[in-house]
């Protein structure tokens, strides 16, 4: 595998000021003509003009109107190098004309231009543009694009590209064309093209300086009743970015196109976002509360990219977190401001633990700015995105909200229209705040999750509390890769913001008077540091890492009683939740150690704590209570075991969790019943915060009731589950169906069959049907997943189907994926091998399920190794998969 290194970055020898494209879509092929206005880069290294091109059939190549001859250029599988024009040296400025043919109908990778149900769609990030036209496909080449699209009018009435529609017309009897011009220079990964038959919802938005922006959401015919929420999310995002960051929309048109075949979530192409239907379409009876929230978040995310990503873009792909970490931070802030900030934060932290911490501990570990990669598509990771957002959040925490805003202003003043590095972003934050961030920069180059050790000590005689903090960060697989490549490894302590509160016995904050919200932000910059607090009237319980102020593992030996105190009184909602999670993990891991059988390991105090949270949820904040009552995920418990040097036992983890659920259901049945009754809906469905929280807690209660003994289950719970399968909203329906999917009862089959009959024509709902079955805890799930791959509802070419069935099984059903018989591993390998030639990006994502294989017992390891070696040994293995599997086998 060829590896690309950050240290090899060199500025381009040639710049492209303009690209004029002409794309003619025909039934048999698509012809793409490009006119590139080229200029020698005065700051470049000199040399030939290197263009990328992949699966392009070159038809014509000329320079300033002169056809090039063979000796003027070289062409291989992925590059076209222009050296001369008829033997003479290249002038400093010229226009290069190219004409190629491509075959979007057979493009199954969904990168470049491809066919989907309703027409042709493009995806260019990271390196899809080279599959459309010859071009230097690197983000530091920013050009002004114009694009003329030509196609059959009847089949493809909408012809869309970036920017403004400047002309259109007909061509003969059946064809038509449209010409678009984007007024802003952009890298080619932000180019987009759509030629399709779609319905459109139109609206408009007036920016604060009075620009009228025409908004349009395009969806497959017949789905207009499912795009209202997306449109309103877009308008909310536009006003929020004006208010919070002073950032306005800079175009007259903003279009969102939804397509059912899409590798990622969505793409921020300038003025023409292309979205996975999953993040656009919603109606109460087809979409869940979390679908609605995800639509808000992703619409906001792509919109926010217009400034953080498009106006200021990345110099090279190593800087991906420059735009992604920052934009995730921005979408999290948007969610926090428009929904509940506590619930938003809790959900982000949970996601970070489930997806990013294991990545940091596994064979693909990398810093938010890696220094090497074989396939850039493998680095659209939880680390680059979610940990990247945590790093931006730490800057925000350290310098404060106002300085952060000044830093953003300065970043745009300095870099608007440029392709820059993470370093430039940190420099703007440093200059705006005056805080020295040189040590903080280490977060950009260090992989792994640091351990933060805390020790508290109270001296009653002098009313002094002393907190000793130490940090450590063990080398990861990444350092090993650096070493193998002979690259320098960075060392030294990190700059960690530790938000701290001291909770007194009466529940009040000891630091209330000195610090806002009673929270003091400590800067841990050394390996070990002591922090002293005077005038503390009684022994406090320390609340460390409030708001999860740094992405670290906290080692703080607090007693059950101390955690219970925090659960009850901590003024920081995130740490109230965290205290509950720590307590629950402790109990569950005791259950694992006990073999998960009897219930002697379940302390009475834990049952009492759950009881209190339920009471609280019925009276106050149902959403927070629901979050508190979600037990730590099996993956999170697995990482805790691995972190302690233990072999992960997925069976014991599952059993321990299940035993605890049964125990709570038995002990607190009346309370769960009361919650279910009290939280019954009293108004028509709306995905608003209050209702979402009530539904979440009510369905959680129902889930616990379904863990009751058989008599109660049959007599009291089953009728409710079956009735709820016909609720008027998908949130309640899927909660009931998901619960039934875990139960070995006849009703399970009926409910699943009825659901499919009702929803078989609604692709996104069928995905849910696949997913509840893939994540079922019943024995034989691996076999059923395999059977479902043969069902007419499944299509291996459609990423959403693969994600719903296969990835859900591999990533969200750890007990069955890591089944002792190795069936889960074999299933994953079969899919990867079948998919990798068709769609390497999606295949590689499935392959990531093997990341933690070495943490299991020797029998499981040997099953996993067999499958990994089988994949690695296959011929013509895609680079994407080869990198993931190669690292896993290390
Ligand atoms: N840049 C996209 C996003 O994260 C993914 N390709 O929004
Ligand atoms: Zn993004």
Defining traits:
single chain, 890 residues, alpha+beta, Immunoglobulin-like, eight-stranded mixed β-sheet, five-stranded mixed β-sheet, 33 strands, 20% strand, binds zinc ion
What can you tell me about this protein's structure?
The chain is α+β, with helices and mostly antiparallel strands and 890 residues long. Helix content is 41%, strand content 20%. The strands form nine sheets. The protein has an eight-stranded mixed beta sheet with strand order 6-5-11-3-2-14-17-16, with no helix packed on it. It has a five-stranded mixed beta sheet with strand order 19-20-21-23-22, covered by helices on one side. A hairpin with a 3-residue loop joins strand 16 and strand 17. The longest helix has 21 residues. It is globular. The two termini are 13 Å apart. 52% of the residues are buried. The structure holds diaminopropanoic acid (DPP) and zinc ion. Diaminopropanoic acid (DPP) binds next to strand 22 and helix 2.
Compute the average pLDDT. 98
Catalogue the ligands.
Answer: diaminopropanoic acid, zinc ion
Query: Helical residue percent?
Result: 40-55%
Count of DSSP-assigned helices: 27
Strand content: 15-25%
**Can you tell me the CATH topology of the largest domain?**
Immunoglobulin-like
Number of structurally distinct domains: 5
Largest sheet: 8 strands, mixed
Supply the CATH superfamily name of the largest domain: tricorn interacting facor f3 domain
The low-confidence parts are none
Q: What is the CA-CA span between the terminal residues? A: 13 Å
Strand order of the largest sheet: 6-5-11-3-2-14-17-16
Category by helix and strand content:
alpha+beta
CATH architecture grouping of the largest domain: Sandwich
The overall strand count is: 33
* Highest-level CATH class of the largest domain: Mainly Beta
Radius of gyration: 28 Å
User: What is the global morphology?
Assistant: globular
